[in-house]
Amino acid sequence: MIHYEDAASFVVAALNASVKRMVLMAVDDKTVTKKEICEAALSSGLFPGAKMPQFRTDSGPLGKRCDGSFSKAYLQWKPAFPSFDVFMSSPPAAESSPFTLQT
């Protein structure tokens, strides 16, 4: 789970690196489960009255985690938000993120 700005900067890094025929994974520095994402969102205070969803075990693994260390090292990329928890607890930032594609 990453912030949309981190996803965008990851794509720009991949484009600048001229990545071809590779599968790269954009993830932050802390792997989280679906349950942990919901816990962070609910504890942020942004969703008053919301309740923790009940996950079905037949809809996919509840503890699935992704490791993007190869992609980060290959692209020399680092997310601006080190974790979903940090993003959810951060005050809203000004909407200005100039991403530039090197030509």
Name the features.
103 residues, mainly alpha
Notes on the structure:
- With 103 residues, this protein is mainly alpha-helical.
- The protein is built from 4 helices and no strands.
- 35% of the residues lie in helices and 0% in strands.
Summarize the structure.
With 103 residues, the chain is an all-alpha fold. The protein has helices at 4-16, 34-43, 69-75, 84-89.
Number of strands: 0
The helix/strand order is HHHH
Q: How would a textbook summarize the main sheet?
A: none
Radius of gyration, taken over Cα atoms and rounded to an integer in Å: 16 Å
Strand content: under 5%
Number of helices: 4
Class of secondary structure makeup: mainly alpha
What would you call the shape?
A: globular
Note the gap between the termini.
29 Å
Residue stretches low in confidence (pLDDT < 50, at least 5 long) are 96-101
Which percent range fits the helix content?
25-40%
Mean pLDDT: 80
Q: Secondary-structure map with pairings?
A:
Blueprint: H1 4-16, H2 34-43, H3 69-75, H4 84-89
